[in-house]
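Worked problem 6 (solution included).
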Amino acid sequence: MKKVGVIVGRFQVPELHAGHRYLIDTVIGLCDHVLVVLGHTETISGRNPFSKKARYAMLKASYPEIQLAAINDELSDEQWSEKLDRIIAKRFPDADVTLYGSRDSFLAVYTRHFPTVHIPPIPAPSGTDIRKKLFAKKKRR
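Solution. The predicted structure is:
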């Protein structure tokens, strides 16, 4: 049975940082297939400044072998978790699936079917810190 690792994240940064790369590289090393599910909202904001298309391109440029999907925000964690499980089951109906996360990940709100593993983070800036610096530079211009 093929082993599938699933990572869910927003990846709302202009380029993947060391923590993102460490998480993705770790899951690639543990699994036969990797699915990255991008958290998505239609509203562009300071918290979500990059489009789904831009984030897909960023991830595929660095990791052409991974699969990508997107998941919209939901009203409840339960609804969101059910939707995530449907996305995974549709792509990998007969696989051994594990969900992986790290610092500030979705693992705390996921309430459904698949087992989860927390990958301890490495020292790296957070996406929030990167976005704050990026927008501080733009305001000074």
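Discussion: The radius of gyration is 15 Å.
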